[in-house]
């Protein structure tokens, strides 16, 4: 029956498991371990566990399993493994499947920590990584080789909001048998059809829109049953990095309201981007849902709407700092997808580690501010931003 449900129904009901008490709201099983009736039962469970048979919370837990099943159903993936953070998910998706000598092609516009894994960690273990401009299909085609094992990209890059063509890159990767791993945070599960468009593995930082209220770190890897149980689970269950049951419960509750929140935030983001662009004072307003965005048509085809994040360029770090310090409602922080609107200066915070050359190549200019639009009144947010733009 669940297979025919639409996303909003799955986000509320999929994956629910009830105890003997038939509780309405999902229970939090704050237990690290599980009891076996007999020594033979313990032995049997270690050989092969059934659907509702757990061993140790590092391997799996009923509350975590509910979250994994719900988000997998929502994404249209066969299975999922929840992790302690988004970075634990990105790391495990790559490390679990790669070995020395393998070749990976990655978009170069990445979140700072994703870049660290691809550039510093994988290469230390003998994995060769080729970076490309993710929006340039000819560059992907030239970089993907017959021996390429995986391609990796953020479907919308952080913080420059480049949109990458999942379908086209997947077709190129699949032609050589490479696995397509998509970090889909900015698309959100609400607007994602990444699996339908060809992604083999979809990764989320659930810290962002899935919690959506800035409470807990989390991540999830979604893919085929074979990839999740055969490749990811053995790696994660022995290296740690499991999601806590309490976090899984927060994420389950977050999924129930995610569609409403993300759609409201997206509608607000479009109104704000449109207003700031029309004012004509800022050097640049970058938002995938604006007709002026270089991948506007692709965004419409791939996601429908432009998402909850926009970036603005003030022209200089001094102007950016003045604007940030003049904000009243919008807070300076570095989460995104939160109910609270948040402004970030990537060049001096999330992407500080990068050299000036790399920042310039990635479009992380000194004046760039990333704006995650929250759930406040849109008119209040526009007034706050207009006041701060006037102050810069
Ligand atoms: C935040 C983020 C991550 C990391 O997630 P954490 O939960 O903070 O570990 C990875 N990729 C993207 C695109 C992100 O925005």
Automatic annotation (TrEMBL):
Cited function: Catalyzes the formation of L-homocysteine from O-succinyl-L-homoserine (OSHS) and hydrogen sulfide.
Top enzyme category: transferase
Subunit structure of this chain's protein: Homotetramer.
Keyword tags: Amino-acid biosynthesis, Methionine biosynthesis, Pyridoxal phosphate, Transferase
Record keyword Chaperone present: no
Membership in a protein family: Belongs to the trans-sulfuration enzymes family. MetZ subfamily.
Reaction(s) this enzyme catalyzes, per UniProt: O-succinyl-L-homoserine + hydrogen sulfide = L-homocysteine + succinate
Coiled coil: none
N6-(pyridoxal phosphate)lysine modifications at: 208
Source species of the chain: Yoonia phaeophyticola
EC number from the UniProt entry: 2.5.1.-
Lineage: superkingdom: Bacteria
Required co-factors: pyridoxal 5'-phosphate
Record protein name field: O-succinylhomoserine sulfhydrylase
Pathway assigned in UniProt: Amino-acid biosynthesis; L-methionine biosynthesis via de novo pathway; L-homocysteine from O-succinyl-L-homoserine: step 1/1
């Amino acid at each position: 029956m669940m297979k025919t449900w639409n996303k909003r129904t799955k986000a509320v009901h999929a994956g629910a498991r009830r105890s003997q008490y038939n509780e309405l709201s999902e229970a939090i099983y704050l237990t690290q371990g599980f009891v076996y009736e007999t020594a033979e039962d313990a032995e049997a469970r270690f050989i092969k566990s059934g659907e509702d048979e757990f061993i140790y919370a590092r391997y799996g837990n009923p509350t975590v399993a509910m979250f994994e099943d719900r988000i997998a159903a929502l994404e249209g993936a066969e299975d999922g493994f929840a992790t302690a953070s988004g970075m634990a998910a990105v790391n495990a998706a790559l490390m679990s499947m790669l070995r020395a000598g393998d070749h990976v092609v990655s978009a170069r516009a990445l979140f700072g920590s994703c870049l660290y894994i691809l550039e510093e960690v994988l290469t230390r273990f003998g994995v060769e990584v080729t970076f490309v401009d993710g929006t340039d299909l000819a560059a992907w085609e030239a970089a993907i080789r017959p021996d390429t094992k995986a391609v990796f990209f953020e479907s919308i890059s952080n913080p420059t909001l480049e949109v990458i063509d999942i379908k086209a890159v997947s077709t190129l990767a699949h032609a050589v048998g490479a696995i397509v791993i998509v970090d889909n945070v900015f698309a959100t599960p609400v607007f994602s059809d990444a699996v339908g468009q060809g992604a083999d593995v979809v990764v989320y930082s659930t810290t962002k829109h899935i919690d959506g209220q800035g409470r807990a770190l989390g991540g999830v890897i979604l893919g085929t049953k074979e990839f999740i149980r055969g490749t990811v689970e053995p790696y994660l269950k022995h290296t740690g990095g499991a999601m806590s049951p309490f976090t899984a419960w927060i994420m389950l509750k977050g999924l129930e309201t995610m569609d409403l929140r993300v759609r409201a935030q997206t509608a607000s983001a479009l109104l704000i981007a449109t207003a700031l662009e029309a004012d004509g004072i800022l050097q640049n307003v970058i938002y995938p849902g604006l007709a002026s965005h270089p991948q506007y048509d692709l965004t419409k085809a791939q996601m429908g709407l432009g998402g909850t994040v926009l970036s603005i360029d003030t022209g200089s770090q001094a102007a950016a700092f003045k604007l940030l310090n003049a904000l009243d409602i919008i807070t300076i922080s570095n989460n995104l997808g939160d109910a609270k609107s948040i402004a970030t200066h990537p060049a001096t915070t999330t992407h500080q580690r990068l050299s000036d050359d790399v920042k310039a190549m990635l479009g992380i200019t000194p004046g760039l501010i990333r704006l995650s639009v929250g759930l406040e009144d849109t008119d209040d947010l526009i007034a706050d931003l207009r006041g701060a733009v006037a102050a810069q």
